[in-house]
Amino acid sequence: MNRVSLNDVYKFILKNRRGGAFPGFSKIEIRHALAIALETQSIIVDTDETGKEIFGVALGTPAPEYKLMHVNQILTIRKHGGMARLMQHFVKLFPGWEMQAERHGNLVRYKDFNKLVKKVSIYG
Q1: Can you tell me the distance from the alpha carbon of 84 to that of 62, in angstroms, rounded to the nearest whole number?
Q2: Which of 7, 16, 108, 121 could serve as a FRET partner for 46 with CA atoms 20 to 30 Å apart?
Q3: What would be the CATH architecture of the domain defined by 6-123?
Q4: Strands 98-103 and 106-110: what pairing?
Q5: β-strands 68-76, 54-63: how paired?
Q6: Contact in structure between 124 and 84 (CB atoms under 8 Å)
Q7: pLDDT tens, 51-75?
Q8: 107 has which bridge partners?
Q9: Helices (H), the chain
Q10: pLDDT of 118 above 70
């Protein structure tokens, strides 16, 4: 299986960002966010079966002392199931952790990743 490079992810973000994904980020800020997520092992990339085509990316900031993942950015081009696929990867990488993210200007904390994945699967 092939792996995408960080530069591939960067190009994907530049090409597809819209709405709330990476709002107001300069190109340098996007590269910086990717580097931090890579360093903290909190970057998720959704690809096709071959690992060549990118469908989505999620960046987080882990707080291991609290078993908490703060999801900073999510970008997916899948019409259905993209967000759920990204969240499933976080569930696998951080079992038993809680997750938080900003939604509609409010910080929301999810104590049950699996419940969140099911909810996202239904609505997105």
Answers
A1: 19
A2: 108
A3: 3-Layer(aba) Sandwich (3.40)
A4: antiparallel
A5: antiparallel
A6: yes
A7: 889 999 999 999 999 999 998 999 9
A8: 102
A9: 6-16, 27-39, 82-93, 113-123
A10: no
